[in-house]
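Encode chain A's predicted structure.
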Amino acid sequence: MITRVPAVNVSESENNYHVELAAPGLKKEDFKLNLERNQLSISVEISSAQQDNQKNYSKREYSYSSFVRSFTLPDSADLGQVEASYTDGILRIDIAKREEAKAVRRQIETK
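Encoded structure for chain A:
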């Protein structure tokens, strides 16, 4: 059996780090997010009792019964400000940057 792990996009904006995990067909209650030191772990474990046993499948390939994805967050991440949401099959996690890590931008006047 091939283990399938959802694809992840990781990006950065001026004030936040962003993690997007594609996991359609789940509910927000299926996700377990843990933050230990600077390690973010995203896991899902669905027991066979939760799966659809009403249908008689001849082949079933798209089923995430369980997975774990872990990410090491940079020191500039503010671990006290992490928000997660699940919409349209995408789990979105936003991690704020510490104030001192935010990009300093200013216009420099040419004389």
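DSSP finds no helices and seven strands in the chain.
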